[in-house]
Write a structure and sequence with these properties.
CATH class: Alpha Beta
CATH architecture: 4-Layer Sandwich
Number of helices: 10
Shape: globular
Number of domains: 1
Bound molecules: zinc ion
Length: about 280
């Protein structure tokens, strides 16, 4: 297995992958059938036909041409790769350059997205692009589950009455959207602070790159990243089931980060926080 690979089961999902700040980031979620970013290769990544990309830094995207060529060798279809609109053209040039070097065309379907664009994943699942705050054009990806549920004004009514209404042709259900999983990619904390969807999502995978004063908050903000001290101030706004902190710099061990979660984060949120990545 690839060094640095981790796995966590939360909110009905299995998060599997690698998330080392500045080195490699790649997360797969088998229950939804998507892969977020393309840092390293590890067992199982070739089976993902759909890839949601946060931004064009090499630790998040550098392995894409290699992944595409490996899939092609295994006769898999071209992957559907969803990226910030601004990087589609430069990416095409990269693929053209590899085609020239290798004398072999690489088949990939690149889709450029603006904030609030949606991608239908099937089975009532939708991926929504949200603008994140990094040094280059970047997107946080939010996975929503679209279902129907009993109309709010009918909750608590007896079963026979509901059956009668239904028999009379009354629509007794209404659309319901559950924010299920959000993966921020690299971002300043402003995204979490300003967008309530990030506070209410069931599982939030958020970057925290620096964990102590070896790097200052100001420095992290200038590079478009989140510092743990910033999370200490706002973590209690999280209403979901699991807050998964990723993209830890190699300066900080997992054990140290877990100790800081236990000692610094408010008790109200602490037991819902997971430090991800080896
Ligand atoms: Zn980055």
């Amino acid at each position: 297995m690839h060094d640095g690979y981790d796995e966590l089961a939360v909110g009905g999902l299995t998060l599997r992958g690698s998330a080392q700040g500045g080195v490699r980031t790649c997360l797969t979620v088998p229950e939804i059938g998507v892969m977020f970013d393309v840092g390293p290769m590890f067992r199982g990544v070739l089976r993902y036909d759909r890839i949601l990309v946060s931004h064009g830094h090499q630790d998040h995207l550098g392995m894409l041409p290699y992944l595409v060529s490996q899939r092609q060798l295994m006769r898999k279809p071209p992957p559907e790769v969803h990226v910030p609109r601004e990087i589609v053209e430069p990416l095409r040039r990269i693929f053209d350059a590899w085609a020239a070097i290798e004398d072999f065309d690489l088949a990939v379907h690149l889709h450029g997205h603006d904030p609030e664009d949606t991608v239908d994943l099937g089975n009532g699942r939708v991926a929504r692009a949200i603008r994140s705050h990094h040094r280059v054009p970047s997107l946080c990806w939010l996975i929503e589950r679209h279902t129907r549920r009993l109309r709010a004004d009918l909750v608590g009514r007896p079963g026979p009455e509901l059956r009668r209404l239904k028999a009379e042709g009354v629509e007794i259900t209404e659309p319901h959207v559950e924010p299920w999983l959000a993966v921020t990619g690299d971002t300043r904390i402003d995204l979490f602070v300003q967008d309530r969807r990030l506070q209410e999502v069931r599982v939030l995978v958020h970057e925290v790159t620096a964990w102590d004063d070896r790097r200052s908050v100001e420095e992290m903000r200038a590079w478009g990243h989140t510092h743990f001290e910033e999370f200490v101030q706002v973590a209690d706004r999280f209403r979901g089931e699991a807050l998964v902190l990723v993209h830890r710099s190699l300066r900080h061990s997992k054990r140290d980060a877990q100790a800081m979660v236990a000692s610094r984060l408010p008790a109200s949120v602490q037991d819902r926080v997971h430090v991800f990545g080896t």
